[in-house]
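Your task:
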Amino acid sequence: MKSDAQARPVTIRDVGPRDGLQMAKAVMPTTAKLAWIDAMVAAGVTELEAASFVPPTALPQMADAAEVVRTVRARHPRVRVVALAPNLRGARDGAAAGAQSIIIPVSASEAHCRANVRRSRDEQVAELGRIVAFARSLGPDVPRIEAGISTAFGCSLQGRVPEDEVVALAAALAETGADIVALADTLGYATPSHIRRLVRAVRAEIGADRFGNLHLHDTLGAALANAMAALEEGVRGFDAALGGLGGCPFAPGSVGNVATEDLVHLLESEGFDTGIDLEALIAARAVLAAGLPSEPLHGRVAAAGVPRTYRPAASRDRAARGTAMGDARQMPTAAATPAGLPLAGIRVIEFSHMVMGPSCGMVLADLGADVIKVEPAPAGDNTRRLTGPAIGFFPAFNRNKRSLCVDLKRPAGLALVRRLIAGADVVVENFRPGAMDRLGLGAEAMTALNPRLVYCSCKGFLPGPYEHRAALDEVVQMMGGLAYMTGPPGRPLRAGASVNDIMGGLFGAVAVLAALRRRDATGQGGVVQSGLFETNMVLVAQHMARAAIEGQDPEPFGAPELKKPWPLYDVFDTADPGQQVFVGVVTETQWRAFCEAFGLTDLLADPGLARMADLAAARPRILARVAGLFRTLSKAELMARCEMLGLPFAPIARPAELLDDPHLHASGGLLPIDMNRTRPEGEGASALATAGLPALPITLPAGRPGLTRQPPFPGEHGLAVAREAGLEEAEIRRLIEDGVLTIPATAGTEAETV
């Protein structure tokens, strides 16, 4: 095999989403299929057999065929999307969905042909002719018609098919007009010598340029040896399936396709360039397993681990070749996030500013979604330029996102964004009512464009009398009772963080997840909303309930006369000047332990303090006694004693101190954010170049969601996003020159490739 052919690329078409699934016992949800496909594309797969256009009653697994093909075409315009159709009707449906190649199965075995497509072999050749005529009538959008000769190497229903019959069938298919003729070892019965003879004969008969991929099953464990034999005969295209999924329901005894990961390992090790990142491909198995948990996955390399001796054939020049070939791995797509995250494969287009919308998008991004933040050209989101208490908004809520900086007031900019939404799963927006409609990007228009779209509006108020009012966190805190409950009487006080904006974004993300789950069942997206005012009411619900029970307004938490139900639930001074500690004692068990540890046994022995209600009533004298005691203790000593007792306690920390909190560091709760990326160029540097900002306060089976992408520069990912939308380089250059698309100098090499 050491020859000039060694440097030539080899194409692997992953057929798992079609052939791999047709034998699966469970129906894989559409979202899970798309996530699996996204993960394979991110690993470098450039050809996919995505679906079969057959009646859903015959194969429920393929009921979403048109949807899958359309979505993959929209998300990955540089990937060749292939579909199988057994007849003219299926071919028409596949072409309408946008399949670039349509495979027409024609069995070499007469018995298999009648079982598989309910026609004789000659009748299926004639059907191919009708499909070719239909395809030619489509003009410039004609899909490539591939004739796939199944059971070419033997059939469990008929036995061995004479080789001369296979060659004659290939000639008939080529003469009928098939652009490509391919051979399939449907049962996995082939041997290397059989592969060599039949491949050589068919290529000689129809010409090497019309010979398609070799489709290999691994029933007898000979698939990799057969691939090597085919390589020696000049074959440069193979079908395989991630995890070795597959089989044929009309060929008893057939088992899975050769595992894509095993084939990649073999070919790359032998010096052929597949363009596929083996480790990323193996990682994509986790996405497949999550979407199809009942199906066992196969594959020798995944089981054994990638050998330390493994070296990809073209690792030295793949980066240069990737741009010319449209290598999907050069583009950060939905599956560029870790494959194990639950929203891998979900694409979100975010139109937002300030906090509520960005926090919704951040939650989805942290969970693995590909979030594209659409910012106004040329300077990006105005939130970047806020000062004072709002200076931290952008770095806090825009990690793990990509940025597209585009002028939506220009038709070309609007067209680009509409193309993105057509292939997206979710839109998130938090602008004033009517703003998106005026741009032509409102919920009604976008869900009509993309019926699977979940359109999330984060608004000040849900539909009702207030819905057209302008809203801020302060506004809803004041009108929603939270400010009243926070400050002292007569002095309503805003909470010291954007509590409603942040929680409103979180509730928006919850609504999106619910709508995506519903879409799995119905196939339809829809409109969801989150309300700032309504979020505030969730926070005040406990006080509303108290008012209903007692028949009067509760006193604010800041009121001196607030009747707390516990003896200690207060902030105390310590012996260290200016240092305070909150201490709570909220059960009778804690009260006994507290009194014994701090030498207050006389209070413990007082029969008038036997019950929690007695202790609450005696708060004034208890507080005076305890406050005097705590002023004799250092902050460190008081905290150590409280921790030993298991009491609720807390230092009164300041934000700057939390940047180095030991618990947050140890638990993975601080993410290293590049603070200078979030400020406009030339507008000053951050005091800290990198700061640890809080991660989502959750753990997942794979650990805590982390940092996969720094908050973006304005327009940092515009080139990649425009290419993913299917724009040609000349068109992208024109958008940049016209000021429709802004690409910053800080995008570095990405900007230089235009």
